[in-house]
Amino acid sequence: MTPTLPTEQIDRIVWNQHHDPFTVLGPHEIEQDGKSVWVVRAYLPDAEAVSVVTPDQNKEYSMQSVHHPHFFECVISDAPHLFSYQLKVKSSQGDRLMRDPYYFKSPLLTEFDAYLFGEGTHYQIYEKMGAHPTEIDGVSGVYFAVWAPNARNVSVIGDFNSWDGRKHQMRKGHTGIWDLFIPDLTIGTVYKYEIKSPEGHIYEKSDPYGFFQEIRPKTASIVTDLNDYQWHDQDWLDNRRSQDPLKQPISVYELHLGSWMHSAMDHPPESGYPAVAAADLKPGARFLTYRELAEDLIPYVKGMGYTHIEVMPIAEHPFDGSWGYQVTGYYAATSRYGTPQDLMYFIDKCHQNNIGIIVDWVPAHFPKDGHGLSFFDGTFLYEPADVRIGEHKEWGTKIFNYKRSEVKNFLIANVLFWFEKYHIDGIRVDAVASMIYRDYNREAGTWLPNEYGGRESLEAIELFRHLHSILFTYYPGALSIAEESTSWPMVTWPAYSGGLGFNLKWNMGWMHDMLNYFKLDPYFRGHNNNYLTFSIWYAFSENFMLALSHDEVVHGKSPMIGKMPGDEWQKFANLRCLYGYMFTHPGKKTMFMGMEIGQWSEWNVWGDLEWHLLQYQPHKSLQTYIGDLNKLLRSTPELYVQDFSQDGFEWIECNDTQNSVISFLRKAEHGDFVLVVCNFTPVPHHNYRVGVPEKGFYKEILNSDAPIYGGSGIGNLGGKYTDDYGTHGKPYSLDVTAPPLSVVVLKYIGEDIGEA
């Protein structure tokens, strides 16, 4: 049989070199002998014989092998219109009926979708890119779309086609997006993209927009449907939209899901999800699933009084030791702990228990793993080609090309995706400084200035402004928290006023000052009082979050209690003092897991927390103290409603370096206030005079030296009345007892003790 098209077109299909196989394969109306006929073509590398079967007409047409033994076609002259058909394939594996993917010619991704993506403003691009179970012309299957503009060819490969890139070759649109609908594929299909570079090199890539991946160390993507979970958190979402989070109490429990607690491999999850081994360094241990964490973690966090959980990155990543910060699947919830629906269940349960969820987001870099974004289509696509702006040498990772619209769209849509599909409440953006400074961790001569000769990354700045202008419009009440370690101005100012647009920033300066201060022997603290007080000079220039994070308890830095001087009693007392000052200082709060129990070891991503320590009273008492700090914060508006206003804070005494005692007021919006007195030495101070603005009774609502917390029991017998003479510029004063290494909080009640 003579082919109905030029043989070079057949060769391009056979050799997998055609950018649009739809022009060759599938049904085509052609003219033959002066009349219109239909020709059906198929390339089936494992077929011995093929027929076209029309179930509606109960007809079968034999296809002939032309030019190549596995390229088949037949001419059908008795069908005036396009008809539905199947291919009957005979091979060494037996006979089978299959639908022809090249019958379904209309792409689901429209020209308008492609235009918005190229412009960088398709905020729901994840609804079109990736793998989506769908139905076309009454036929169920999966629609695939991937951006690889410089690839010579792209194919979908998987178990369903023996990982053979010849069988499901994709079509390239003019914007560089390749697509294909494959009928009869279902949820659970395992797949990758086989990508040929312009030079013909072959790469097998996970789906950048894939929603699920195989459990590491496997790396293929898995088809899933994120719309099949029934949520029960509408009240939470409605309430979030109507509130200003900056005027709410925020106390965040930061944790790594894979090392908070483990179970045993010989006790598999009741949900039926596979038991995933935690690490070779902890033989016999497995990760808890998202559903198990919902049952164990949520009651713990709720009981401790935290308002939010911050999870270290849960987007898919190949290496446990990266803590999740080297992401390969930005749209895929890691399969270490369960399915996407399992994660939805966990977040849903958090919201039903009035706990918010913050997710660490990593737009600063991505790893070089072969299945990931690096050199994705055989060219520098997601990353710049110039290593001076395209690679973090110290980290061994690539930097996103923030200048490219499609890459910016990938990142911005990714944030919106986590809010939309997983109902998260906030993001904590990792390593912001590495993005906004081109010379970050680079020696002179190894970085490329911007177009104006400066060190600022104008592209990354624009990315953040663009992101936040959209995020807070779509999701009022959301949190976006910057881990930004420099003095870059206006990080938490709105984008329209020239800021980066975040609404919170980790206060790295406060953290360093506090740890430098508390590691000192109390004898020397009076000479370093500036560590305590300096933060107030800039506390209201940004919306700060005080964070004691995972970074402070790794890499030989010592656990928190190990940083404290003195004997065991003094170590715990110092720790209570630090935490008490943190919770009364302006700013929202973040603490890493294990800090609440006084863990003696550094955090180990391969292990779990030292829960056995809670059998010992000092550790149990510290845990009780943290719970009470959270309850105090949530019940005391004076400690949170004006965190970011000078009106919410007033020094009483900040220069008593001889005694290492400071005192200050925290104020609510309508005149209510609390007095905080901190003693940073192990020497108690009785009859310590503190000026106050109002006459009456001051009730002691927190004393970190209380016996229930492991303290010595020195205190103020429930509260103090004012004396009618003033000090510190105030008309009245209190005769306060400041216990050793303590924080005492007294709330002004009024002149009538009965009000207390």
From TrEMBL:
<dbReference type="InterPro" id="IPR044143">
    <property type="entry name" value="GlgB_N_E_set_prok"/>
</dbReference>
<dbReference type="InterPro" id="IPR006407">
    <property type="entry name" value="GlgB"/>
</dbReference>
<dbReference type="InterPro" id="IPR054169">
    <property type="entry name" value="GlgB_N"/>
</dbReference>
<comment type="similarity">
    <text>Belongs to the glycosyl hydrolase 13 family. GlgB subfamily.</text>
</comment>
<dbReference type="GO" id="GO:0005978">
    <property type="term" value="P:glycogen biosynthetic process"/>
</dbReference>
<dbReference type="InterPro" id="IPR013783">
    <property type="entry name" value="Ig-like_fold"/>
</dbReference>
<keyword id="KW-0321">Glycogen metabolism</keyword>
<feature type="domain" description="Glycosyl hydrolase family 13 catalytic">
    <location>
        <begin position="280"/>
        <end position="633"/>
    </location>
</feature>
<dbReference type="GO" id="GO:0003844">
    <property type="term" value="F:1,4-alpha-glucan branching enzyme activity"/>
</dbReference>
<feature type="active site" description="Proton donor">
    <location>
        <position position="483"/>
    </location>
</feature>
<dbReference type="InterPro" id="IPR006047">
    <property type="entry name" value="GH13_cat_dom"/>
</dbReference>
<comment type="function">
    <text>Catalyzes the formation of the alpha-1,6-glucosidic linkages in glycogen by scission of a 1,4-alpha-linked oligosaccharide from growing alpha-1,4-glucan chains and the subsequent attachment of the oligosaccharide to the alpha-1,6 position.</text>
</comment>
<keyword id="KW-0119">Carbohydrate metabolism</keyword>
<dbReference type="InterPro" id="IPR014756">
    <property type="entry name" value="Ig_E-set"/>
</dbReference>
<dbReference type="Pfam" id="PF22019">
    <property type="entry name" value="GlgB_N"/>
</dbReference>
<keyword id="KW-0320">Glycogen biosynthesis</keyword>
<dbReference type="InterPro" id="IPR017853">
    <property type="entry name" value="GH"/>
</dbReference>
<dbReference type="GO" id="GO:0043169">
    <property type="term" value="F:cation binding"/>
</dbReference>
<dbReference type="InterPro" id="IPR006048">
    <property type="entry name" value="A-amylase/branching_C"/>
</dbReference>
<keyword id="KW-0808">Transferase</keyword>
<dbReference type="InterPro" id="IPR013780">
    <property type="entry name" value="Glyco_hydro_b"/>
</dbReference>
<dbReference type="InterPro" id="IPR037439">
    <property type="entry name" value="Branching_enzy"/>
</dbReference>
<comment type="subunit">
    <text>Monomer.</text>
</comment>
<dbReference type="GO" id="GO:0004553">
    <property type="term" value="F:hydrolase activity, hydrolyzing O-glycosyl compounds"/>
</dbReference>
<keyword id="KW-0328">Glycosyltransferase</keyword>
<dbReference type="Pfam" id="PF02922">
    <property type="entry name" value="CBM_48"/>
</dbReference>
<protein>
    <recommendedName>
        <fullName>1,4-alpha-glucan branching enzyme GlgB</fullName>
        <ecNumber>2.4.1.18</ecNumber>
    </recommendedName>
</protein>
<feature type="active site" description="Nucleophile">
    <location>
        <position position="430"/>
    </location>
</feature>
<dbReference type="Pfam" id="PF00128">
    <property type="entry name" value="Alpha-amylase"/>
</dbReference>
<dbReference type="InterPro" id="IPR004193">
    <property type="entry name" value="Glyco_hydro_13_N"/>
</dbReference>
<dbReference type="Pfam" id="PF02806">
    <property type="entry name" value="Alpha-amylase_C"/>
</dbReference>
<comment type="pathway">
    <text>Glycan biosynthesis; glycogen biosynthesis.</text>
</comment>
<dbReference type="GO" id="GO:0005829">
    <property type="term" value="C:cytosol"/>
</dbReference>
